[in-house]
């Protein structure tokens, strides 16, 4: 039962109190805001004084760049104004938030409770939930320089996150293993929660290992292929404790990470290491491998079946599993002897993304390919290869009848030999 907040609960001789952005965050926002704004303005000015040629393509490209530059300038200016103008005023009967273009206020009797939003790449935020479901929530960034009075004012608001978690824990305790004594029941639930943590940590460890460690005897690929099915088995075996797509404040362990992360890792590995000659085969593998995985997850978890939007999103994500696992099995389980084509490395380049780097070797025409071919390879192959080296393209039929090819080192019989 939520307690009724009254102004008297917040009465203090120290109100009203004003809180502004802390010096550290203010310096950060101002510096980056000025850099963004100056960069955007300089780019726009450069376009004004150095207009493009009359070619329509050049004009469109310049207008696009100018729009992006203007956006950076506006973003930078907003960051500076936010650092200067952002403030929170606490009073005995409410809270007032001032931002660059608006001011909002909530009285204490209008506040149902609070939630804490934890951002991975920024400060936490305090979210005040109104009693009126139609009213807009008030989000306060905790970039503020606070004090004990601020903490005390916030602490008197009901913690909705903690209430939801406590309710979820009661549901777990009242539902599972009722045939056991309370002490034994708690111990078993605690052990199962630890196992769930290990399954999720295994997914994270595999993500690191997939990029840093060699895959001896394809052991890593085998574990990645098996992990989603292990997660599904665990959810089915220990119902209704384990779930997919659990709520944020939920005592039920969520194994969604073990369900979807291996698929992304397998997809990245397949895109780097395995290549196909058309798109129809990989699409067939993606659908044929991803949809059964989603169907098994829905069958295993009644809770997940109620989360229709999440189930659709997971179904889309598991297409990556079907693609990656299907291509890896298509190559590793291929019992036919691949055709081998000798080619020469003509060049090498890489493509850097925000979180990954893709390595390419450009090789001379081979087999069915009648032009120079740019083939993505592993980082180890990229570093070990120089322009002018001789490599071989292995072309296989595929265990699933999806033709594949890989760039590898040549067998001794295919290497050119110097004349005596």
Q: What are the segments in which pLDDT stays under 50 over at least 5 consecutive residues?
A: none
Q: What is the percentage of strand-forming residues?
A: 15-25%
Question: Structural class of the secondary elements?
Answer: alpha+beta
Q: Give the distance, in angstroms, between the N- and C-terminal Cα atoms.
A: 93 Å
| Cα-based radius of gyration, to the nearest Å | 29 Å
Shape: flat
Topology as H/E string? EHHEEEEEEHHHHHEHHHEEEHEE
Number of domains: 3
Helical run tally:
11
Strand order of the largest sheet: 8-13-12-9-10-11
Q: Average pLDDT value?
A: 84
Helix content: 40-55%
How many strand elements? 13
Structure description:
The chain has 420 residues and is of the alpha+beta class. The protein folds into 3 domains: 7-155, Pleckstrin-homology domain (PH domain)/Phosphotyrosine-binding domain (PTB) (PH-domain like, Roll); 181-332, no CATH class; 339-414, OB fold (Dihydrolipoamide Acetyltransferase, E2P) (Beta Barrel), CATH 2.40.50. The protein is built from 11 helices and 13 strands. The strands form 3 sheets. The chain has a 6-stranded antiparallel β-sheet with strand order 8-13-12-9-10-11. A hairpin with a 7-residue loop joins strand 12 (390-396) and strand 13 (404-408). Helix 5 packs antiparallel against helix 6 (219-237). It is flat, with a radius of gyration of 29 Å. The mean pLDDT is 84.
Write the layout of secondary structure elements.
Elements: E1 17-20, H1 23-49, H2 56-85, E2 87-91, E3 94-99, E4 102-107, E5 111-117, E6 125-130, E7 138-141, H3 148-155, H4 160-175, H5 182-212, H6 219-237, H7 256-273, E8 275-276, H8 280-300, H9 302-306, H10 308-332, E9 339-352, E10 357-363, E11 373-377, H11 379-384, E12 390-396, E13 404-408
Antiparallel strand pairs: 1-2, 2-3, 3-4, 5-6, 6-7, 8-13, 9-10, 9-12, 10-11, 12-13
Helix pairs in contact: 1-2, 5-6, 5-7, 6-7, 6-8, 7-10, 8-10
């Amino acid at each position: 039962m939520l307690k009724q907040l009254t102004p008297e609960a917040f009465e203090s001789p120290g109100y009203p109190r004003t809180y502004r952005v802390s010096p550290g965050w203010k310096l950060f926002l101002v510096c980056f805001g000025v850099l963004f704004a100056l960069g955007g303005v300089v780019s726009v000015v450069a376009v004004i004084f150095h207009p493009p040629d009359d070619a329509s393509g050049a004009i469109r490209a310049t207008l696009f760049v100018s729009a992006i530059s203007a956006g950076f300038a506006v973003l930078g200016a907003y960051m500076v104004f936010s650092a200067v103008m952002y403030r929170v005023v606490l009073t005995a009967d409410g809270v007032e938030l001032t931002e660059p273009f608006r001011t909002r206020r909530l009285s204490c009797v209008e506040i149902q409770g609070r939630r804490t939003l934890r951002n991975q790449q920024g400060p936490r935020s305090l979210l005040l939930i109104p009693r009126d479901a139609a009213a807009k929530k008030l989000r306060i960034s905790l970039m503020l320089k606070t004090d004990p009075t601020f903490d005390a004012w916030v602490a008197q608001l009901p913690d909705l996150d903690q209430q939801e978690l406590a309710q979820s824990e009661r549901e777990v305790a009242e539902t599972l293993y009722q045939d056991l004594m309370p002490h034994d029941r708690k111990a078993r639930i605690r052990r199962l929660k630890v196992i769930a943590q290990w399954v999720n940590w295994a997914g994270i460890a595999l993500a690191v290992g997939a990029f840093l460690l060699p895959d001896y005897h394809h052991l890593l690929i085998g574990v990645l292929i098996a992990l989603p099915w292990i997660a599904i088995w665990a959810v089915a075996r220990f119902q209704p404790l384990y779930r997919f797509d659990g709520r944020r404040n939920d005592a039920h362990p969520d194994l969604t990470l073990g369900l979807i992360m291996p698929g992304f890792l397998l997809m990245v590995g397949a895109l780097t290491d395995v290549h196909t000659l058309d798109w129809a085969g990989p699409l067939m593998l993606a659908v044929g491998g991803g949809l059964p995985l989603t169907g098994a997850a829905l069958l295993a978890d009644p809770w997940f079946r109620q989360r229709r939007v999440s189930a659709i999103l997971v179904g889309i994500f598991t297409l990556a599993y079907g693609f990656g696992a299907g291509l890896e099995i298509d190559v590793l389980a291929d019992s036919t002897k691949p055709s081998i084509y000798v080619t020469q490395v003509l060049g090498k380049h890489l493509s850097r993304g925000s979180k990954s780097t893709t390595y390419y070797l450009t090789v001379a025409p081979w087999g069915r390919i009648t032009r120079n071919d740019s083939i993505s390879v592993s980082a180890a192959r990229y570093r070990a290869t120089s322009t002018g080296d001789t490599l071989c393209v292995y072309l296989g039929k595929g265990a699933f009848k999806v033709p594949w090819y890989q760039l590898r080192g040549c067998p001794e019989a295919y290497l050119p030999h110097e004349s005596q």
